[in-house]
């Protein structure tokens, strides 16, 4: 016991322990491993027009898995006032740091080839993913060309990788 106590009083050992503690804290902040066990469920209703009119579906897609197991559907809805919403339904993916919803001009590819392509070309970030489970809505910018932006990705901005993606097909 005395030998360990003497070792721990040496400046080099104390400095090494301090550096290791700081690096462990930074690693925990960067990777946020606790999110692997914490689900965030969102249950937003589909948007409805103030006049009570039903939204029209412009495009649909089914999410496929990339870096993490991902499933659910994507719908682009247009309200009678002309506004459009991207709706994720039945979403199930892993939680993670800095997850965003991107619309992109990149093609959806299965497997590892599709993991890294969604921020390479033209893309629009619709904001942070509200939750890794459930149903949620994201407003699309006015004038967004759905003929150009044909895919959606659940994108991890921290590690530049797609958790899952869907190709959009006209409804």
Spatial strand sequence of the major β-sheet: 1-8-5-4-2-11
Report the CATH superfamily of the largest domain: Superoxide dismutase, copper/zinc binding domain
CATH fold topology of the largest domain: Immunoglobulin-like
Task: Specify the structural class.
Answer: alpha+beta
Rg over CA atoms, rounded to whole Å, is 22 Å
The succession of helices and strands, N to C, reads: HHEEEEEEEEEEE
Could you describe the 3D structure shown?
The protein folds into 2 domains: 2-31; 41-170, Sandwich (Immunoglobulin-like), CATH 2.60.40. It has helices at residues 2-8, 11-31, and strands at residues 41-43, 56-62, 64-65, 71-78, 84-92, 99-104, 123-128, 133-139, 151-156, 161-167, 169-170. Helices cover 16% and strands 37% of the residues. Strand 4 (71-78) and strand 5 (84-92) form a beta hairpin. It has 2 helices and 11 strands; from the N terminus they run H-H-E-E-E-E-E-E-E-E-E-E-E. 29% of the residues are buried. It has a 6-stranded mixed sheet, with no helix packed on it. The mean pLDDT is 87. It is an alpha+beta fold.
